[in-house]
Amino acid sequence: MDLAYICEWEKWPKSTHCPSGPLACTWSCRNLIAFTTDLRSDDQDLTRMIHILDTEHPWDVHSIRSEHSEAITCLEWDQSGSRLLSADADGQIKCWSMADHLANSWESPVGSVVEGDPIVALSWLHNGVKLALHVEKSGASSFGEKFSRVKFSPSLTLFGGKPMEGWIAVTVSGLVTVSLLKPSGQVLTSTESLCRLRGRVALADIAFTGGGNIVVATADGSSASPVQLYKVCVSVVNEKCRIDTELLPSLFMRCTTDLSRRDRLPAITHLKFLARDMSEQVLLCASSQTSSVVECWSLRKEGLPVNNIFQQLSPAVGDKQPTILKWRILSATNDLDRVSAVALPKLPISLTNTDLKVASDTQFYPGLGLALAFHDGSVHIVHRLSLQTMAIFYSSAAPRPIDEPALKRPRTTGPAVHFKAMQLSWTSLALVGIDNHGRGSPLRPGHSFLRDGTSLGMLRELMVVIRIWGLLKPSCLPVYTATSDTQDSMSLLFRLLTKLWICCRDEGPTSEPDEALVDECCLLPSQLLIPSLDWLPVSDGLVSRLQPKQPLRLHFGKAPALPGSSTGLQLDGLIRAPGQPKMDHLRRLHLGAYPTEACKACTRCGCVTMLKSPNKTTAVKQWEQRWIKNCLCGGLWWRMPLSYP
């Protein structure tokens, strides 16, 4: 994992920035990142901001004045990635949704409130859709091989079995509040105490069971107190929301059983389920001012021994041994530096017998790791189950060896910049962190297409399929404009592609292309004429331009000059000169050099289309409705300024 880029505010006066305030961050399944900052005005009033950006264009951030009166404590995307929940320290919860399906246009039509009671945990109700990641097939090219559908029940269903939408939150006073969104738009809200004896809840997290129940884990912040767990059942009775709670087995952190260590680690600072769909595994972190200890616990069913006397009185008891739920520790770390943030995978993993051995080894798969950020600015990637450190990263340096002495690490003067919030992507292949200056720093693996043997092999297979189709129906073959009538252009391209594939295929050793192959590729433009491609969308995203070991430094609100975006590195047909006529790529219409109609663009491929349809025929309008939410490539729409370049 390499540092891809750092995006920061270009000019941010110190008088308006509040680095001491809490930060929240969340990453949607559609690659939208939302995070919070607080801005102080001249009269010392604080404005609670929510910033939304796409990972392809992090500089193009959309900022929302949330109108929260207190600090925002929680942010949570729904499973579709189109709605966002925000909650604050005054008990107010807002539900944000896209206006006109645009990723930079948001509105908050509904919400709920538990007045004066800060929200410490927030989650959408489960919709019954659960995917499991197969770690042994994480390198497969097919999505169906990597993930599988797991049987799971939604938290609440409507008539006919359709999942009912809504959210659940936990307050600092020990209340659980549930809000349900009815199809009519009405919001049903109910609040109940987690237990009869209410106490302070400093930390909480929410998970779901396969049977449709909800599990809430809470802690009062003291390592001397137990971590309490509760089962929450939600139902609708007589058009009213009903909440039933039940106490589950609790646990004490192992590091606090020793009195000397309890005094040295007085506070529980992080409490997280390993995944929203895994209510039987929890991650705990106890900290002091300088150090932390992380523990992973699992809830298991264990047999309850029965005295021989009772077995003789009731022989049926001996046939089926009674069981009891108990928390067992899976792994624990030694003393670490003070942890500032934790990022966990969003998808549960599917482990076979072979993978159980992997869990205790040093081999690492995406989805099996979690990230720990520390106050010295470092990020540790540790194993999900064994908590073994796999790699150490710094926000402005290359990965460092695990066994590097602490004395050799660079020391900075003054307080170190560290991550206060982190999130892993839904595939666990990328990590974003928000530091105490409000900057975003995604980490993701870099790649080069010419070194990607899998993609090159897929292109070769596609060319073979196209050739076979051409034998059955010649109109399926592409048309090439060649300088020679006797040249077989498709065979020429296939031969060059095969030579490149041989250099980097997975089955054999990789090698650099020889000079003869490079010369053949250089002669290709003189053998084939490339027509003007001005009708194709041009994406200015940065994923395809990332360079390994060369992180980009970006600024919010300012489009950068990315590597590889200069004129000399682009195809002639893809260059856009200023004042060149623009295209509506969805409708194949010319918009002119300076369009006057409001347009939207795809955040992934750069496809541009008008917001309002000029067509009046029913058939065309129905076709356009297919792309009202997403582009043809599946990307999100982003409203463009009226006079875009």
UniProtKB/TrEMBL annotation:
SMART domains from the UniProt entry: WD40
Transcription is among the record's keywords: yes
Residue ranges crossing the lipid bilayer per the database entry: none
WD repeats: 65-98
Cross-referenced SUPFAM superfamilies: Soluble quinoprotein glucose dehydrogenase (SSF50952), WD40 repeat-like (SSF50978)
Subcellular location: Nucleus
Keywords: Activator, Nucleus, Repeat, Transcription, Transcription regulation, WD repeat
BP terms from Gene Ontology: positive regulation of DNA-templated transcription; transcription by RNA polymerase II
Subunit structure: Component of the Mediator complex, which is composed of MED1, MED4, MED6, MED7, MED8, MED9, MED10, MED11, MED12, MED13, MED13L, MED14, MED15, MED16, MED17, MED18, MED19, MED20, MED21, MED22, MED23, MED24, MED25, MED26, MED27, MED29, MED30, MED31, CCNC, CDK8 and CDC2L6/CDK11. The MED12, MED13, CCNC and CDK8 subunits form a distinct module termed the CDK8 module. Mediator containing the CDK8 module is less active than Mediator lacking this module in supporting transcriptional activation.
Name listed for the protein in its UniProt record: Mediator of RNA polymerase II transcription subunit 16
Lineage per the UniProt record: Eukaryota, Metazoa, Chordata, Craniata, Vertebrata
